[in-house]
Design goal:
The chain has helices spanning 6-21, 86-98, 116-121, 146-159, 189-202, 223-229, 247-263; strands at 32-34, 37-39, 43-54, 57-67, 70-79, 105-111, 164-169, 175-177, 180-184, 206-210, 234-238, 278-287, 292-296, 303-304, 309-314, 320-325, 330-336, 340-341, 346-353. Strand 3 (43-54) and strand 4 (57-67) form a beta hairpin. The strands form three sheets. Strands 3, 4, 5, 6, 7, 8, 9, 10, 11, 12, 14, 17 and 19 form a 13-stranded mixed sheet that branches. It is built from seven helices and 19 strands. It starts with 5 loop residues before the first helix and ends with a strand. It is globular, with a radius of gyration of 21 Å. Helix content is 24%, strand content 33%. By secondary structure, it is an alpha+beta fold. Helix 1 (6-21) packs across helix 5 (189-202) and helix 2 (86-98) packs across helix 7. It binds zinc ion (ZN).
Length: 356
C-alpha cells in the first residue's frame, strides 16, 4: 500500500520530472496546426499569423513550424518581441536552415519577429502605433490596442500550443548588456527543475533566479511569465547588445537552442549541462526620474559597490540634475549607453551574485 511519506514524495517528484524530461516512445508525429496552416509530420512550413484589424490598424507575425517526423515536445522559440533586438531574430533564420524535420522528434515553432511593426520602424521597447511595450501587455486582449492584440495572438497560437518556450531577447538598441537568462520560479518544484535545466542547457553563464513575476495570469505582463503561469517550462534569454548583429551573440543563441533541443531529446546528442553558472538571486532595474541625457560611468559586466556612482543625468541644457548610484553591490547586467533618458524608462540593471 502506498504510504504518504517524505521519501515517496521525493520519488513522485523525480517520476514527474522524468516525465517532463524524458521523451515518450518514438512514435510517428501528428499534424500540427497553427493559424490557418496545417503542417504534416516531417514537414516544414512558414506563414503569417494574422493580428486582426481595429481602427484601421492590423499586422501579422511571421513564423515557421518544423514538425518532426517523430513525436516529442513542442518547443516554441520567440524572437523580436522587441523589434530592435536583432541577434535572436537572425539566429532563428539560421536555425530554420539547420533543422531537418525528417530527423526531428517533436515540433519547433519559430516566431521570427513577434513585433513586426517595431522591427519595420526600428523602434526600441515599444510598438510605434500604440507606444506600448509588447512584453508588458500579456496575456493581451482581443479588442485592445495593437500590442495587446499581438500578445493575444501569441498567447493563443503559440503559448497555448507549446509544451515549453524560450523568449529570446537581448540588450535593446540603447542597452549595453551582458548575456544572461531569467529562470522564472513558478513555485511548482517539478516545473522549476525543468526550466532550470533549460537555463543551464542554454548555456549563458549568468542566470537570474527570478521570483519577482506576478502569479496572476490575467496580469502576466511578460511572454515568458505567461508560459510559466500556464504550467509550461520557460526561460527568457538575453544575448546581444546595443542594436548590434555580432556573430558571437547570434551563435550563442543558436548553440543555446540546440542544446535545449538535445535536453528534450528532439535532436541527437547529449546536452552539455556542465555550465558553471553564476546565480543572481536579486536584481533591480533603476529607472530615470526625469527627461534629459544619461552619461554612464561604468560598463556592462562590471562589479559595483553599494552606493557607487554609476552615471549621471543632465537636462537638455547640460546641467547635471541627478547622480545615479548602485542600490546594492553587484554586477551591472546592463546600462544605457546612448544619450537619451526619459522619465520612467530604465537606466541600468544591477544583479546581486549568490555564489561569488
Ligand atoms: Zn527585449
Amino acid at each position: 500500500m502506498y504510504q504518504f511519506n517524505f521519501r515517496n514524495v521525493i520519488l513522485s517528484i523525480i517520476f514527474l520530472c522524468t516525465f517532463f524530461t524524458n521523451i515518450l516512445v518514438a512514435k510517428d508525429n501528428d499534424e500540427f496546426n497553427i493559424g490557418d496552416i496545417k503542417v504534416s509530420p516531417g514537414e516544414m512550413k512558414s506563414g503569417y499569423l494574422a493580428v486582426p484589424e481595429k481602427d484601421g490598424l492590423e499586422t501579422s507575425i511571421p513564423f515557421t513550424v518544423i514538425n518532426g517526423a517523430k513525436q516529442g515536445r513542442v518547443l516554441a522559440l520567440v524572437a523580436g518581441v522587441h523589434g530592435y533586438e536583432y541577434p535572436p531574430i537572425l539566429a532563428l533564420y539560421r536555425l530554420k536552415e539547420m533543422i531537418d524535420p525528417a530527423k526531428l522528434s517533436g515540433t519547433l515553432v519559430l516566431v521570427h519577429i513577434a513585433n513586426l511593426q517595431s522591427f519595420q520602424k526600428r523602434i526600441i521597447y515599444y510598438n510605434p502605433y500604440d507606444w506600448k511595450n509588447l512584453n508588458r501587455v500579456f496575456p493581451g486582449e482581443p479588442d485592445g490596442t495593437i500590442s495587446q492584440r499581438i500578445a493575444h495572438v501569441l498567447k493563443n497560437e503559440v503559448v497555448d500550443r507549446c509544451d515549453c518556450l524560450i523568449d529570446m531577447h537581448c540588450g535593446d538598441g540603447n542597452e549595453a548588456l551582458i548575456p544572461y537568462t531569467y529562470w522564472m520560479i513558478s513555485g511548482d518544484e517539478c516545473q522549476d527543475n525543468v526550466s532550470k535545466e533549460m537555463a543551464l542547457a542554454f548555456g549563458i553563464k549568468h542566470i537570474i533566479i527570478d521570483k519577482s513575476r506576478t502569479k496572476d495570469l490575467t496580469l502576466s505582463k511578460y511572454l515568458g511569465n505567461t508560459a510559466v503561469l500556464l504550467a509550461k517550462p520557460a526561460i527568457t534569454t538575453e544575448s546581444g547588445y546595443l542594436g548590434n548583429t555580432d556573430e558571437e551573440s547570434i551563435v550563442r543563441n543558436i548553440k543555446g537552442v540546440l542544446n535545449v533541443m538535445r535536453l528534450f531529446k528532439m535532436i541527437e546528442g547529449k546536452p552539455e549541462l556542465d555550465l558553471e553558472a553564476v546565480w543572481i538571486d536579486k536584481y533591480e532595474v533603476v529607472y530615470s526620474d526625469a527627461d534629459g541625457l544619461f552619461f554612464p560611468l561604468t560598463e556592462m559586466g562590471y562589479y559595483v559597490k553599494k552606493g557607487e556612482k554609476v552615471g549621471y543625468l543632465t537636462d537638455y541644457l547640460g546641467n547635471v540634475i541627478q547622480e545615479l548610484r548602485a542600490p546594492f553591490a553587484g554586477i551591472m547586467l546592463y546600462i544605457i549607453h546612448t544619450p537619451p533618458a526619459n522619465k520612467g524608462e530604465p537606466l541600468f540593471e544591477v544583479g546581486s551574485v549568490l555564489n561569488k
